[in-house]
Design a protein that fits this description.
Elements: E1 2-7, H1 12-26, E2 30-35, H2 42-56, E3 59-62, H3 74-86, E4 91-94, H4 102-114, E5 121-125, E6 142-145, H5 150-158, H6 161-167, H7 169-185, E7 191-198
Parallel strand pairs: 1-2, 1-4, 2-3, 4-5
Antiparallel strand pairs: 5-7, 6-7
Length: 203
């Protein structure tokens, strides 16, 4: 099965659904992480993203779009269309369309538009950590037990050393803490949660 994960920035995919990516790849599925833009420290953060993707056993496609031009428009949707044509997915994950970061919102809306043929499932992962406050509430509708992949997730986050240095160890603790909270909700040790846009399953 082909799975696409749209990651607005380096580390978003790992922080918000690294455990789920590891579960897919451990089960033999093909996961493509699409890195949309690198807002700073480009060479460092691309190298960190490559290392992290290898830890998750996922492919990495670096689009490297200009962060000042990330907008929900025909150009961005067309770029995502081409990604999906080249790597036809059964499942897509993207950022949350009520996130407080403008890039995350644009990527979410462009993903929804690019998946308009309704031939694959589409989920949104939670708001970024750290993040600004938003008046909207994330609706945790689908959960993945990542108890067996939590350490792989954390290792993939730690690969982004520039961000660990920027946000401190508390950032990593917050990532693990969210996974504990979502796990507690479904009676497992660790979990990740998603909001469902559409779920299309073969019988």
């Amino acid at each position: 099965m082909n799975v696409i994960v749209f990651s607005p920035h380096p580390d978003d995919a790992e922080v918000l659904m690294g455990g789920t990516i590891a579960r897919y790849t451990q089960k033999g599925h093909d996961v493509l992480i699409v890195l949309v833009t690198i807002p700073n420290q480009k060479e460092t953060r691309i190298a960190e993203s490559k290392m992290s993707a290898e830890m998750l056993d996922a492919r990495l496609l670096v689009l490297d779009l200009d962060c000042n031009e990330i907008q929900f428009n025909r150009r961005l949707v067309g770029i995502f269309d081409r990604v999906m044509n080249d790597f036809p997915p059964e499942v897509i994950y993207t950022s949350w369309f009520h996130d407080s970061h403008q890039d995350h919102i644009a990527v979410a809306l462009a993903t929804i538009a690019a998946s308009r043929k309704n031939n694959c499932s589409l989920y949104m992962y939670e708001q970024a950590l750290p993040s600004g406050m938003t008046p909207d509430t994330f609706r945790a509708q689908a959960f993945v037990d990542i108890s067996n992949t939590i350490e792989t997730k954390i290792e993939s986050v730690l690969a982004h050393n520039s961000q660990v240095q920027n946000f401190s160890e508390q950032w990593v603790q917050g990532i693990r803490g969210r996974a504990i909270y979502r796990g507690f909700q479904i009676n497992v040790e660790y979990a990740e949660a998603f909001e469902v846009v559409k779920e299309i399953k073969g019988i």
